[in-house]
Every structure is written in structure tokens, then in C-alpha cells.
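check this one:
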Amino acid sequence: MSSPSPSTRIARTAARTSARRGIRIQLVGIVAALGVCLAGASAANADRYLSGVHFSSIVTCSTSVDELTVMSGSNARSGSLAMIYLYSYASGRWMHENQWHNVSGFNTEISTGAFNFVGHHRYEVWIRYAQATSSGWVYSGEYPRPYYQRNANGYGTYASRTCHI
């Protein structure tokens, strides 16, 4: 029994490579479509569950008034706290408040007066949550993305991966 000619082997290898490439392209397309579907189906704000308590936060950023607004809350009647951390891309450092905010019940606006925004820079926001339980405090945190960025004129918003303040 003779082996196939070099040109036949090359043709078979090319056909297999082409078929594999086609399968990879299809898989990438399926994964991308699934990601779009999941992203479209998810809430526009961040959600975290901690000891059975639902925490939710929305962050709005504005360069027109150098402002960061955080709306946060939980479905617990009491014992839910949040603290804001900011990462400055300009300084390469994290900063945070030195106080916890009571966010028991939804739609609690957290004051961000502890932060001094000088100039226009990019920031990451991380929110640390604490929940009182019968056995003590439990903690978790999240990056509440996407951020809602207010247009420079102060009107209209768009989703952003970083806060421009």
C-alpha cells in the first residue's frame, strides 16, 4: 500500500485546517452572540447578594460639574452598609471614605463629598458592602458597571467603562 502523494496530503491538510478555522469562527460568533444576549438581558446597574440580602448600586459621573453620584441600597430593613472606593488613573492609587453609609432600603444617595476631584481624570469605582447577620458582619464588594457618564453639557448620559470626572 503506497502513501498518498505530497500534493494529496497538502490538499487534505488544507481542507482540515479550513474546516477547523470555519468551526472556530462559528464558535467565536456563537460566544459573541451569547455575550450580547446576556449583556442585553442583564440589569444596567450592578447587583450583589450577600447573606441573602440583595444589594444594588448605580453610579453616575459628570465632568461638567466634577460630580460622582452613587445610588445604592438593599432589600433589608436594617444592617446594610456601603463604602465607596475610587481608583484614580492619574495618580495610580486607591482612595476611600472613612465612613460607612446606611443603605438599608433601595434608592439611597451616597454623598461623595469626601473626594476632591481636581481636573478631569478617569476613575474606577468599587463599592464595599457590609451586612449585619446573627453571627456578625459579612462583607463583599463590586465594580458597579457600567457607569453612567453625563455628557459634557450636562444633558444626556451614556454607558462607560470608567468614570470621567
In short: Residues 6-41 form the longest helix (36 residues). The chain is about 20% helix and 40% strand. The two ends are 75 Å apart (CA to CA).
